[in-house]
């Protein structure tokens, strides 16, 4: 089974795609402009990591991504990250960043290590569940956005795993998939899932729910909107979850992580019909 490493993580391509889509989709302009500033920070951090890493090996000895966290290389940059969020993000997120600027590195280390070990929480199924987790998504965003380039850097130094079966969670960090990706192969496309945290892709069956494993085709409707012909909404009527898939056979210039951010109306449409996303993207669009 094929496993695609992030390889050369191309933040420049992500940034340029976000700038292009901000012009194409005015309704997503604010989100994509914020993402552009965020990706610029992530790019700088990603490029500094190999220079500041130290003498220890990058790839974890036991092959488990979440087994260790190189805090000495991360903490000096977290204050600048919080400043960026405070000055650039929407109100509640900006306020959360401001609150965290004062406590300092001991609190920052606790927050980052907690997220590194626990991972992302699943998207809530309903409003009551969302209300019970109020406040946590803000800290989760800060940790996820800051640690993502670190995770991509570490994973790029690891050997690909040997996958002998279909898996619905990332083989590297056990996170849920944020996206599907259809990559051209022969006369059609091969389906991959993309991790919501470390951005890895792994091969996945075409007719198979990425959350509950449903494989009856009549239970797995696919929706495509005229405005986004290269973005598929792959739903499951058994578990009522959905996955957005970026079809690179229809738009080879798409950058899945970025094109997904711009497809905001598709989330509203599917949620109105009772489907919940398997895992929200970084900005919750």
Task: Describe the protein.
Residues 128-134 have low confidence and may be disordered. This protein is an alpha+beta fold and 285 residues long. The protein folds into two domains: 28-156, no CATH class; 177-277, no CATH class. The chain has nine helices and eight strands. Strands 1, 2, 3, 4, 5, 6, 7 and 8 form an eight-stranded mixed β-sheet that branches.
Cα gyration radius (Å): 18 Å
From the N-terminal CA to the C-terminal CA, the straight-line distance is 31 Å
Strand segment tally: 8
- Strand share of the residues? 5-15%
Number of helical segments with 4 or more residues: 9
- Which shape, going by the Cα principal axes? globular
- Give the integer mean of the pLDDT values: 90
Oligomeric state of this protein: single chain
Task: Provide a short characterization of the protein structure.
By secondary structure, this protein is an alpha+beta fold.
Give the topology:
Blueprint: E1 3-4, H1 11-24, H2 29-52, H3 71-88, H4 91-101, H5 105-118, H6 127-132, H7 136-156, E2 177-185, E3 188-195, E4 201-203, E5 222-224, E6 231-235, E7 241-247, H8 256-262, H9 264-272, E8 276-277
Helix pairs in contact: 1-2, 1-8, 2-3, 2-7, 3-4, 3-5, 5-7
């Amino acid at each position: 089974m094929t496993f695609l490493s992030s390889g050369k993580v191309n933040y420049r391509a992500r940034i340029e795609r976000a700038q292009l889509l901000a012009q194409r989709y005015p309704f997503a302009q604010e989100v994509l402009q914020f993402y552009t500033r965020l990706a610029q920070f992530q790019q700088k951090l990603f490029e500094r990591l190999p220079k500041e890493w130290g003498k220890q090996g990058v790839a974890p000895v036991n092959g488990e991504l979440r087994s260790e966290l190189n805090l000495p290389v991360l903490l000096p940059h977290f204050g600048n990250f919080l400043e960026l969020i405070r000055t650039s993000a929407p109100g509640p997120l900006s306020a959360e960043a401001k609150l965290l600027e004062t406590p300092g590195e001991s609190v920052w280390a606790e927050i980052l290590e907690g997220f590194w070990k626990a991972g992302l929480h699943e998207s809530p199924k309903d409003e009551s569940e969302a209300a019970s987790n109020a406040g946590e998504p803000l800290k989760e965003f800060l940790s996820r956005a800051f640690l993502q380039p670190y995770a991509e850097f570490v994973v790029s130094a690891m050997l690909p795993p040997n996958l002998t079966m279909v898996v619905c969670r990332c083989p590297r960090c056990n996170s849920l998939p944020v996206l599907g990706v259809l990559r051209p192969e022969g006369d059609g496309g091969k389906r991959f899932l993309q991790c919501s945290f470390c951005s890895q892709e792994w091969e996945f069956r075409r007719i198979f729910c990425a959350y509950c494993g449903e494989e009856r085709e009549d239970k797995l409707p696919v929706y495509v909107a005229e405005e986004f012909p290269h973005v598929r909404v792959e739903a499951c009527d058994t578990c009522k979850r959905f996955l957005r898939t970026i079809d690179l056979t229809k738009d080879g210039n798409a950058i899945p992580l970025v094109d997904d951010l711009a497809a905001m109306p598709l989330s509203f449409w599917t949620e109105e019909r009772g489907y919940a996303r398997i895992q929200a993207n970084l900005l919750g669009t």
